[in-house]
Amino acid sequence: MTAEVEDGWYDPEFTTFGDRLSGAREEVGMSQEEFAKRLGVKIKTLKNWEDDFSEPRANRLSIMAGMLNVTLRWLLTGEGEGPSDPQAGDLSPDVSVLLEEFRDLQNQLAITSERLNRLERQLRATLRVEAVD
Predict the structure, then answer these.
(1) Could you tell me which residues come within 8 angstroms of residue 107 by beta carbon, excluding any fewer than 6 positions away?
(2) What was the pLDDT predicted at 10?
(3) The predicted structure's pLDDT at residue 123
(4) In sequence order, what are the residues at sequence separation of 6 or more whose Cβ sits closer than 8 angstroms to the Cβ of residue 96?
(5) Mean pLDDT (10-residue bins), the chain, 133 residues
(6) Which residue of 11, 18, 21, 56 is surrounded by the most CB atoms within 10 Å?
(7) Residue 39: which residues within 8 A CB-CB, separation 6 or more?
(8) What does DSSP assign to residue 35?
(9) How far from 45 is each of 10, 40, 67, 76, 102, CA to CA, in Å?
């Protein structure tokens, strides 16, 4: 049994999605406000996810897993690679800063890609309507 499971906060048998989400967010040192802002959602939405009142869409799950440095499987089930990568503490401050910036850019890219897809769908729908007229 690993130390994380012994602590009990993300044992797959006892934790919920919201527990894992909030625990992993805290593990990377982000407040709810900061995480919600970086994810592009309202703080109320994030709180509802962490309190297990609602669940995010699949595209947000993927973004969150990347931001929290956990696998999607772990985030959903508690099984697989979770937080507390033992090598993370061995990184120099310069590398840590670069990794954080890299993750931020990845997240921004994912959010921008989602916006671009949504805009493309709207454009196609508008063009279809105009073609019929």
Answers:
(1) 38, 39, 63, 66, 67
(2) 54
(3) 93
(4) 88
(5) 44 80 90 92 95 90 88 84 60 75 73 84 91 82
(6) 21
(7) 46, 60, 63, 64, 67, 107, 111
(8) H
(9) 22, 10, 17, 17, 25
Cα 57 to its chain centre, rounded Å, is 11
Distance CA 84, CA 2 (A): 11
- Here the tokens at position 8 are 């009990």
pTM here is 0.59
Residue 126 has what DSSP assignment? H
Instruction: For residues 27 and 21, give the distance between their C-alpha atoms in angstroms, rounded to a whole number.
Output: 10
Q: Which residue reads 């507390």 in tokens?
A: 84
